[in-house]
Design brief:
Layout lengths: L4 H4 L1 H20 L4 H15 L2 H13 L4 H6 L11 H14 L5 H14 L1 H24 L10
Helix pairs in contact: 2-8, 3-4, 3-6, 3-8, 6-7, 6-8, 7-8
């Protein structure tokens, strides 16, 4: 069992949490809804294979109003018509920020998202994606367990 990064370096963890709080405040100030932010977090967590964050953020997404069908279809969202133009912009940002390096297709996706959101909201959404990618890596490297909720 690897050591939990958050437990072995609590001051770094507190700084990461402060960073996340700042990102959330900026997102809210730029008009990003909790629903939109959770779509970014869930999609990035899927792509990164972060079980702990995926478990956490799918629950938070449901609470924020993301439908069960949208969550079910998220891995193939491009093949559905279940997401609004803004939600699509958020998903484009989530994928481009997570699947680096940026290729021409990702750059085009980011430009499409920016055209929908405008510079300030676009940048705030990118910060959400950067933050969740950071937390995905902390959880993956720490091997944070997913607890069975059926017994809770």
């Amino acid at each position: 069992m690897r050591p939990y990064l958050d437990k072995t370096a609590p001051e770094v963890w507190k700084a990461a949490q402060a960073f996340s709080t700042t990102v959330a405040a900026e997102a809210e100030a730029r008009g990003i809804t909790a629903r939109e932010g959770e779509l970014i977090k869930v999609r990035a967590s899927q792509l990164n294979g972060c079980a702990f964050c995926l478990d956490l953020h799918t629950r938070q997404a449901r609470s924020a109003g993301v439908t069960e069908q949208q969550l079910d279809m998220l891995p193939i969202w491009r093949d559905t018509e279940l997401f609004s133009e803004r939600e699509i912009a958020m998903l484009l940002i989530a994928e481009a920020t997570t699947l680096t390096p940026l290729d021409d297709h990702a750059v085009a996706d980011l430009e499409d998202a920016r055209a929908v959101l405008g510079d300030e909201t676009f940048a705030a959404a990118e910060w959400i994606a950067v933050a969740i990618n950071t937390f995905n890596r902390v959880s993956i490297m720490s091997a944070h367990p997913v607890r069975d909720r059926r017994s809770a």
